[in-house]
């Protein structure tokens, strides 16, 4: 048994966050048997807000602010986040210290109707989502879809579909898998047709800048491919002001020195979509960032202020 103080891992209080953090705690414990690890649940502002979209309340930082504060105050040593919730700009004294291997990044359709694809949904299907990206992609596919705001944890959203409050919703397949709820999936969306949010399926482990001891504990969990993919995606988001106020999708897929990338930005009503794809050599994080930034800036130059119109 370790006599060292346990490493405290901060997590949001949602069931998905606790499940994800539990997976990381177990992986850290297996890789570092001389250390003990404990989870510290912290309720974030984003978890408290259930009646409106995040962009109306302040954006992605609502899911990370309290965890960042706890880390800087020394109440936790690490924090586990869903990568897609992590702002592109982190606080000065916090770094993205660990990027474990990514889970399946695709969106999943949850629906009580018997369908084989999104296109099989009725013209005026009621689809609930709190994601501006998913709203825009759905309306781009079919403007007659009736989109309504749907917040709450994964189980709450599944229940609202089952009870008929909405006909369907879209959720990250990775979260459903981590919760053991993949049986509810009706259709997995083609990521080349409907790319996911940047970072979807990946987890982020943050630590205090300069904390070499924590960095060393995380080394065994680091996954090169995922790090390069999310570096390209986050650079794409940053070039397009990737907050919750702008519908943006991005997916990098890296293998054997080659990065395949698809990214798009849309107007919230889905009427306009600007898309970029690339497949090119990528040997390190600097090259990955350049790919994402270049493609994002290309869309920015073409679309201009149209990207940010409500």
Q: What is the percent of helical residues?
A: 25-40%
Structural class: alpha/beta
Spans of at least 5 consecutive residues whose pLDDT stays below 50 are: 48-54
First and last CA, distance: 56 Å
How many beta-strand runs? 13
Mean pLDDT over the residues: 92
CATH third-tier fold name of the largest domain: D-Maltodextrin-Binding Protein, domain 2
Number of helices: 9
Name of the CATH homologous superfamily of the largest domain:
Periplasmic binding protein-like II
- Sheet with the most strands, sense and barrel status: 5 strands, mixed
For the record, the count of structural domains works out to 3
How much β-strand is present in the residues? 15-25%
CATH arch. level architecture of the largest domain: 3-Layer(aba) Sandwich
Q: State Rg.
A: 19 Å
Shape: globular
| Strand ordering within the main sheet | 2-1-3-10-4
The first-level CATH class of the largest domain is given as Alpha Beta
Helices and strands, in N-to-C order? EHEHHEEEEHEHEHEEHHEEEH
What would a concise description of this structure say?
The chain has nine helices and 13 strands. The protein is α/β, with parallel strands linked by helices. α8 runs parallel beside α9.
Outline the structure in words.
It is a single chain. By secondary structure, the chain is an alpha/beta fold. The chain has three domains: 1-100 and 202-222, Periplasmic binding protein-like II (D-Maltodextrin-Binding Protein, domain 2, 3-Layer(aba) Sandwich), CATH 3.40.190.10; 107-188, D-Maltodextrin-Binding Protein, domain 2 (3-Layer(aba) Sandwich); 223-310, Porphobilinogen deaminase, C-terminal domain (Double Stranded RNA Binding Domain, 2-Layer Sandwich). The protein is 31% helix and 23% strand. The protein contains nine helices and 13 strands. It has helices at 15-31, 45-48, 65-72, 132-141, 154-162, 173-178, 212-218, 224-239, 285-303, and strands at 7-12, 37-42, 78-82, 94-98, 107-111, 126-128, 146-148, 168-172, 187-188, 203-208, 248-255, 258-266, 273-281. The strands form three sheets. The chain has a five-stranded mixed β-sheet, sandwiched between helices. Strand 1 (7-12), helix 1 and strand 2 (37-42) form a beta-alpha-beta unit. Helix 8 (224-239) packs parallel to helix 9 (285-303). It is globular, with a radius of gyration of 19 Å.
């Amino acid at each position: 048994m370790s006599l060292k103080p346990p490493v405290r891992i901060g997590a949001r209080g949602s069931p998905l966050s606790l499940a994800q953090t539990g997976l990381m705690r177990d992986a850290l414990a297996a890789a570092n048997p001389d250390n003990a690890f404990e989870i510290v649940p912290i309720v974030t502002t984003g978890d408290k807000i259930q009646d409106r979209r995040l962009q109306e309340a302040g954006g992605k930082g609502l899911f990370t602010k309290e965890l960042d504060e706890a880390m800087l105050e020394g109440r936790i040593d690490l924090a586990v986040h869903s990568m897609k919730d992590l702002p592109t700009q982190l606080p000065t004294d916090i770094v993205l210290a660990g990027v474990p291997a990514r889970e399946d990044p695709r969106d999943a359709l949850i629906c009580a109707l018997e369908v084989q694809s999104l296109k099989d949904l009725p013209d005026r299907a009621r689809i609930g989502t709190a994601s501006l990206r998913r709203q825009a992609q759905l309306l781009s596919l079919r403007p007659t879809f009736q989109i309504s705001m749907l917040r709450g944890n994964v189980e709450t959203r599944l229940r609202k579909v089952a009870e008929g409050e909405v006909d369907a919703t879209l959720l990250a397949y990775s979260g459903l898998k981590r919760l053991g709820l993949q049986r509810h999936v009706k259709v997995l969306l083609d990521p080349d047709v409907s790319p996911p949010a940047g970072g979807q399926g990946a987890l982020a482990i943050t630590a205090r800048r300069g904390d070499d001891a924590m960095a060393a504990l995380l080394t065994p969990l680091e996954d090169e491919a995922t790090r390069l993919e999310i570096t390209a995606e986050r650079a794409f988001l940053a070039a397009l002001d990737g907050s919750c106020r702008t519908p943006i999708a991005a997916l990098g897929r890296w293998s054997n020195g080659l990065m395949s990338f698809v990214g798009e930005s849309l107007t919230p009503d889905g009427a306009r979509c600007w898309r970029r794809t690339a497949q090119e050599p990528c040997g390190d994080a600097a090259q990955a960032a350049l790919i994402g930034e270049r493609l994002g800036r290309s869309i920015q130059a073409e679309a201009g202020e149209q990207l940010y119109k409500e």
